[in-house]
Design goal:
There is one protein chain. The protein is 79% helix and 0% strand. By secondary structure, it is mainly α. The chain has one domain. Helix 1 runs antiparallel to helix 5, helix 3 runs antiparallel to helix 4 and helix 4 runs antiparallel to helix 5. The radius of gyration is 15 Å and the shape is elongated. Keywords: Membrane, Transmembrane, Transmembrane helix.
């Protein structure tokens, strides 16, 4: 079971890398006012959602303690990110504050995962 959990942790990290990487590649465009949500950002958020749900299930099936409050907070943040990226995915450009919010929430989700013990 440990190998399977580690595989899904790796996939979860790939999802966050796609979401954050998509944001970071648009940094120059933010300054120019032409930033947009890329397909990689949407797919990264979806990957995080699916692999996160699988990880919770695998950990519970393996009788490991899961902090449901932490998972709930991370899920709520991810749903906001996913909603914003999904709704605005076809827009030619996204407002700076909205785009910045997605980046901020992504980084916040990373720090919640790492620092909340």
């Amino acid at each position: 079971m440990d190998v399977l959990i580690h595989i899904f942790v790796g996939l979860h990290i790939i999802g966050i890398a796609a979401l954050l990487g998509g944001f970071l590649t648009q940094m120059k465009a933010i300054g120019q006012g032409t930033a947009r949500f890329t397909p990689a950002m949407l797919h990264g958020a979806l990957t995080m959602l699916v692999t996160g749900a699988v990880l919770v299930g695998l950990n519970q099936a393996d009788d490991r303690l899961v902090d449901n409050v932490k998972i709930g907070v991370k899920l709520a943040v991810l749903i906001v990110i996913l909603g914003l990226v999904y709704v605005k995915r076809d827009d030619e450009k996204v407002d700076k504050p909205l785009f910045g919010l997605v980046g901020l929430l992504t980084v916040a989700n990373i720090f919640i995962a790492v620092l909340w013990t």
